[in-house]
Amino acid sequence: MLNKALAERALDDESGFGLVEIVISMFLLALVSISLLPLLITGLKQAAANTTTATATQIVQDQLELVRTQGATCVALTILGSQSWTTVDPRGVELHVDRTIGACPASGDYPGTVSVEIEVERHDGADVTELANATTLVFLETEN
Asked: Is residue 11 within a helix (H) or strand (E), and if so which, with residue range?
């Protein structure tokens, strides 16, 4: 008898989710998603900017390493020379690189130092953004 009463009661009970509850929960989920969309867009823009900055920093580090490996003579640095060129980062952004090597010391001023500056800029039409730069002094023991 008790089992029969429980079975009848279970049939009369309307448990579970109805259509109205499902529609309301979907509406609330859509509101939360829409409110987080600006945050997602900002995050994607920042990630793209970070990629360009990281590429510029890597270019500066590579150029400084190149200067270090040339040898500590004025002739070696003169052969390397000041130079400007354009490269492209992984996203296709054009980066302008300038390597400037200062003047060697006069003949009687050895040992001496030479200034080396590496600069990476992004040119967007008339807008120029400096992304990374470094200046160092190279110690020169002799002229040759």
From this structure: helix 2-12
Query: Domain coordinates of the chain in residue numbers?
Result: 16-140
Q: How far apart are the first and last CA of the chain?
A: 110
- Please, are residues 52 and 95 in contact by the beta-carbon 8 Å criterion? yes
Neighbouring C-alpha atoms within 13 Å toward the C-beta of 109: 9
Using CA of residue 40, residue 41, residue 44, residue 46, what is the dihedral sign?
negative
Residue 9, pLDDT score: 64
Residue 115 CB: number of other CB atoms within 10 A? 12
Question: Is the distance from CB of 133 to CB of 118 less than 8 angstroms?
Answer: yes
Beta strands in the chain (DSSP E): 83-88, 94-101, 112-124, 127-140
Nearest to 57 by CA among 132, 135, 119: 132
pLDDT digits (tens), the chain, 144 positions: 666 666 666 555 566 778 898 999 999 999 999 999 999 999 999 998 899 999 999 999 999 999 988 888 888 888 889 999 999 988 888 999 999 999 988 887 888 899 999 999 998 877 889 999 999 999 988 777
